[in-house]
């Protein structure tokens, strides 16, 4: 082959291999956003109640090393709150406490897909999955002063379903719990600071919150070589 044609062939070959490698890598990258609600369980709401869902949203980055495994980093923010007046418990009605707290959290989780989601030869465009990982939350209760730490590590875990409506777009629904290591999300916890029973919570129970969201994401499938 003459030198006249050698350079274009080499450039084309390098472009092909670089693009192929980059494309393979790009097909594993996904970005998305979610919108839904936070819910809280603690001293003021001992069980999850639909009436206490508050707005929340998130942005996430997902890396898919295989069809079975996905790794996700996510930043979420929203509100949690509850009110004793909605309880049927006479003690809570008498206590008549309420709270609202803004939460910002960051988390890193692993997802296990039960089906070969986005597998090339035998494409499956949906899959249920479970997830678990670790996170960190910062909360801001609506009180004038606070003598306690307003942040906590969390353990996020839950279930979801993802569906590829059309390349490169995916949608999903997910419900997950956030196990915390704090009793102060509702500003009513820890060791009693008053002999008034109405001002005390249960120090043996930590506060938790939950995130239900719908999401949409974009998968990077192709990078065109110039």
TrEMBL record:
Gene3D superfamilies, per database record: 2.40.160.20
Organism superkingdom: Bacteria
Pfam families given in the database record: DUF6089
Domain DUF6089: 15-225
UniProt xrefs under SUPFAM superfamilies: OMPA-like
Name under which the protein is recorded: DUF6089 family protein
The organism of origin for this protein: Dyadobacter pollutisoli
